[in-house]
Structure formats: C-alpha cells, structure tokens
Prior knowledge:
With 560 residues, this protein is mainly alpha-helical. The protein has helices at residues 2-23, 41-66, 68-97, 100-113, 121-133, 136-148, 153-167, 170-183, 188-200, 204-216, 222-240, 245-258, 263-275, 279-292, 296-303, 311-324, 329-341, 345-358, 362-375, 379-391, 441-446, 473-503, 525-529, and strands at 27-32, 35-40, 397-400, 403-405, 422-424, 509-512, 554-557. The strands form three sheets. It has a three-stranded antiparallel β-sheet, with no helix packed on it. Strands 1-2 form a two-stranded antiparallel sheet. A two-stranded antiparallel sheet has the order 6-7.
Amino acid sequence: MIRILFFVLLVLCLALGFAWLADRPGELSLIWQGQLIEMSLMRAASILISLFAAVLIVVWLLRTIWLSPHTVTRYFRSRKRDRGYQALSTGLIAAGAGDANLARKMAARTRNLISSDQEPLIHLLEAQTALIEGKYDDARKKFEAMADDPETRELGLRGLYLEAKRLGANEAARQYAERASEKAPHLPWATLATLDHRSQARQWDEAIRLLDQSRAAHVLEKNEADRKKAVLLTARAMERLDADPKSARDDAQAALKLDDRLVPAALVAAKALFREENLRKGASILERMWKLDPHPDIARLYVRARGGDSALDRLKRAKKLESLRSNNAVALATVAEAALDARELALARTKAEAAARLEPRESIFLLLADIEEADTGDEGRIRHWMAQALKSPRDPAWTADGVTSPVWLPVSPVSGRLDAFEWKAPPSQIAAATEDGHLNPDQAIRSLPPVATVPRPVEEPAPERTAEAAPTAERDQTERERAERERAERERVERERVERERAGPEKAISVPDRKEPAASPAKGKDAEEAPDPFFGRPPDDPGVREPAAAERTTTNFRLF
C-alpha cells in the first residue's frame, strides 16, 4: 500500500513539472566540441528523464542476470521449506488425532526437508509420535532436549512435568514445575502446580509468596487469586492457632477481608478471639458470617463459645441465632439441640419438627429420635424416627474428590488440589424407600405411632438442671458420650434390620394379636404368660419374638 502511494505521488510530481515547463517555454543552447545544439526546454527535459529511466532499466537487467543463480537456488529452497512445513503441519494434526503411522511418516519427511536447527517444532512432533507409540523413554529424551533449548524450554518442561505426573513421580514433577515457574513466571500451569505442591508440603509462607508473584504478573484473575490467598491464610492460621493465637487471628481476619464467605476463616478467627477472652468480638464475627451463610459449625461454636455456660444459657444463645436467620433449618435444629440439653422437650420437639419440614435430613430425624427417647422413651416411636433417618438425604459435609472430612481441609487428600473441599451433601447410595421417590416430612410426622400403653420400668427422675445449679463440664461430657453410645447402638440395630430385609424377599411376619395389657407385667407365672407386644418390647430385643404354640392366633402385617 505504501509503495502504491509513493508511485502515485511520483507520477503526480512529474505531471506537475511538465505542466509548469509547458506554461513557461524557453530555448536551450549547448555548444559541445564546436557544435551548437539548440532545442526547446520541454524537449530537453523529456530526453533527460528518458535517459535516466533507460539507465535504471539497464542496471536492473544486469543485476537480474548476475543474481539469477542465487535466485533459482532460493526458489527451490523456499519450495522445499514450504513442503517441509506442510509435512510438519500434517504430522502435528495426525499426532493430535492419534494417528501414529501418519505422524511417524510426516516426522521423517519433515526432518528430510527441514533442519531441526531451523525449526524446533520437529522435536515436538517426534516427541508426540513417540508418546502415541508408547515409546516413553524416547519421548522423555526429546522433551529433555527441548528443555535445554531456550526457544523450547517451557514446552519441554511441560512435557517432562506431564510425564512425571503420569508415572507418579511427584518429586520430579514438583522440580519441573518450579523450574518452569522460575524461568517463566507467567505460565499458569507452572504457578498452579508449584502452588499445589507447596500447599501439600504445608509450606504456607512459600505458597503465599508465590501467589503474590503470580498476582503481580497477572497470571491469575483477581477473584481466583484472592480466593486462593484466603485459603492459604486460613490454613496458616489453623496451624498457628494453638501456639500463637494472635497471629492466627490476624491471618484469619486477613482471609475474611479477601473472601467474606469463607466459613473456616471465620471459625479460626472466632476461636482465636475466644482464647484471648474477647468473647464479644468473636461472637460478632460469627454472627456476621451466620447472616451470610448459616453453617452448623458456626452455630455449634457460637452456642458453646463459653465453657462455663449452663444448658439454659446455651439455649438463649441458640435462640439469638434463630432470631438472626429465622425460618432456617440449621437454626431450628440448633435450638432443638440446645432445648434437648436444657430438658425443654416440648420446645425441642416443635423446633425439630419445623426443621424437618423445611429440610428433611438424616441428622434432624436422629435428633427427633433422641427427643423421643428423652420425652416418652417409646421404642416404636424411636424406631419410626430412625426409619425416617434411613430414608432421608444425608447431611452436607466437607466433600472433595468423592471423600468427606469431619473438618475443613485446605488441600484435598486425594488429588492434592488447593481449595478442593466444598460444603455439600455427599452422594447417597441408598435411595429413599417411598412411593414417589421423595421423602415427605409432613407424612413422616403424621404417621408417628401413638405412645405405647405398656408401662416402662420406673426410672428415677433426673435432677433438674438450672442456671444456678449447672452441671460441670465433665458431667456434660459424660452425658453426651452416653447419648452418643445409645444412638450408635440404635443405628446399628436399625442397619442390621434393614440389611436383613434387603437380603431376601419381603415376608409376612406372624405375631400374636396385640392386646392392651391391663397392668404392668408382674413377676411370676402371670408375667410369663402375658403376650409380648411389638411396641414396648425391651430395647435389647433386636426382633419380634415368636409366640408360643398355644398362642398361635396370629395376624399378618409388614414391618414399616
């Protein structure tokens, strides 16, 4: 385009010059070797320009003839190079498609047409061809040669890194990734790989330093970099919590500034403040996080923020959480648990049933079973709630790469990936045993069997717990352990029953006609002859007793 414009300007200048001479005619006289030569000025200018053009043409012709051998050689060389690049392109496409024969053929043709010193991509084609053919040692040698060449260093290091990961040589992969990040800090794969390796080694300071360098080089987006740095700061705070609560608090608060929805950071910050006896500030952090994301861990830490609180005090704190996020299943379940500990069973049942209607989960129905045990002690009603727990979806948990953890971890134990854990419901392998495939909490609550009229052994009433006479921390721990053991035993019995039902076809169970006993079973002959009802049987009886031969008046029914 510039040449065309220059040519047009030259022609325009010549035309203007001739027009100027035509408007100003004149005569040109020249005496050369005693002869007088006269002509017009326009004719002299035309002869001069023609002579200059003829000289240029003669020079071009002589130059073309002189350089013709080199021109011919360059033509054939360019043609050969073009054929080589065409073969290289075809070979790379074949290698990407997995055609080993065509890739090997094109690699040989490319090497014959192009020198590897002129085109480093030949090494890549040969390495990819070796990988397709399964010649991993040859491919590794090619990648090593590429890593030594400054033009292909990053490409060779990436190939070596992928090969080391394939072989499971994590240490070699880490070295290749660190070498690539040092030579080219703008490579995202090298930065992320080095970051994951340093996180797996719990080298939080080095990982944070590398992340800051990558942020300065604009390798990662701002949101992603802020999230990863918040996770690293939280991990370092968790490690420092026991030895240095102040540093842990600073790291956790810095993480919350980067990501205000990171629940583990809020938990660590609150724990550090609680250890510094700054209860109000720690509670404010938990309340702020609770408003954004009502998490069970937040509720558990908030309710038990002070070790010397009584059950009634914990209930008040749970009610405060409910007031911050009303009509929430987690808040309702928290109030129900606190009310159960405070022996306010009516409130516990009301809140637990409301939570089950909002979000029917396994833990909520197990909580209802605990409330039923503390309130009525009816084994039939307890088994009803246990059965609903078996059919209900599993509770959310910290899940990463198909595994769950009771606590949040910064790095996945399976893949080693940073920030892999998410709070979500793990996949359930047991489908809900309902007609439409979904659990109906209202139907589960309405179908609760009535309280059995068989009197239970009289137990001594538990002492009433008040704020003035609160049990000690050791007694609370003992009661919680006992309740956990009883709950585990009930779950084991229920699982055995479900496994027995699934092991074979469903059969009708024959039991005696249930009659309402007139009085409590007495010891002696009358007690031995009394029929054993299904509901109200001793808790150590895993199944239904077979009636005696004289009591064969039976009725068929199906369990659940």
